[in-house]
Amino acid sequence: MQLQMQTWAEVERYLETSSVIIMPIGSTEQHGPNGLIGTDAVTSEAIARAVGAATDTMVAPTIAVGMAQHHMAFSGSMTLRPATMIAMIGDYVNSLAHHGFDKFFFINGHGGNSATVEAAFQEIYTAHIMPGGSNEPSVRCYLRNWWQGPKMGPLAKDLYGDKDGMHATISEVAVTQYLFPEDIKSGPGIDDMGPPEPLRERWSDGNDYRAKFPDGRIGSHPYLATPEAGKQIFDLAVSEITEEVAAYAKR
Ligand code: NI
């Protein structure tokens, strides 16, 4: 059930029986030699829509650009400043809270968003006790990274051993291949990309990141991705998060 596909009257009726809304959030950033720039946004959006359908829960418009300053040395990457993103999440949540939504289940596709999204939640909660604050009535927000379910780690281990990596993972590339088979990339630089640069130390800004990880990957072997495995990973993410959203709605 997508918010954008309802009329205002349908949303008003929904709010008579539920105040839960799923918030897909991703990023628009390089994903190595064969990963789509939109990987984190399209995966979180597709998972959110499937979970919304399975639980009859409203799904908000996807927040498709996130905190990705460290990817900015690669063409096509986009980023919000942390302060912009905190303000934007606050405005999304407060707009919806104005109509009666009060439980916000964020399905996140990008690890680099986590600290900023959690800071945004704290801003929203803090506003509740500040003069002129906007968190009225009180709301609750929850952040769930789609690749971190209890059964997901074992599945990735089973499929890829220690080759899944940390960025431009085989798993996320596989999910995009399942969702968008017409956009599977191949050719020179992809089929022969070879092993990744190991993660020796953390990075700071985009230039530092690119110096350490010249093709954009961190520790991953995404040439091993297949749409078939992508379907397994997608289905597991949807089933795990479906249970969690159903439980969240009852709290
Ligand atoms: Ni990603």
Description:
The protein has 251 residues and is α/β, with parallel strands linked by helices. The protein has a single domain (3-240), classed as 3-Layer(aba) Sandwich (Rossmann fold), CATH 3.40.50. Helices cover 43% and strands 8% of the residues. The chain is built from 8 helices and 4 strands. It has helices at 8-17, 39-55, 82-99, 114-127, 152-160, 170-179, 206-212, 227-250; strands at 20-25, 58-59, 103-108, 140-145. The protein has a 4-stranded parallel beta sheet, sandwiched between helices. Helix 2 crosses helix 6 (170-179), helix 2 crosses helix 8 and helix 6 (170-179) packs across helix 8 (227-250). It is globular. It starts with 7 loop residues before the first helix and ends with a helix. The relative contact order is 0.18. The model has no long low-confidence stretch (mean pLDDT 95). The structure holds nickel (II) ion.
What topology, given as strand order, has the largest sheet? 2-1-3-4
The CATH architecture can be named as: 3-Layer(aba) Sandwich
Number of domains: 1
Q: How many distinct helices?
A: 8
The third-level CATH topology is: Rossmann fold
Q: Helices and strands: which structural class?
A: alpha/beta
Let me know the largest β-sheet: 4 strands, parallel
Total beta-strand segments: 4
* Distinct ligand kinds: nickel (II) ion
CATH-level-4 superfamily name: Creatininase
Alpha-carbon Rg, integer: 19 Å
String of helices and strands: HEHEHEHEHHHH
Shape descriptor: globular
Mean pLDDT: 95
Q: What is the highest CATH level, the class?
A: Alpha Beta
Q: Proportion of β residues?
A: 5-15%
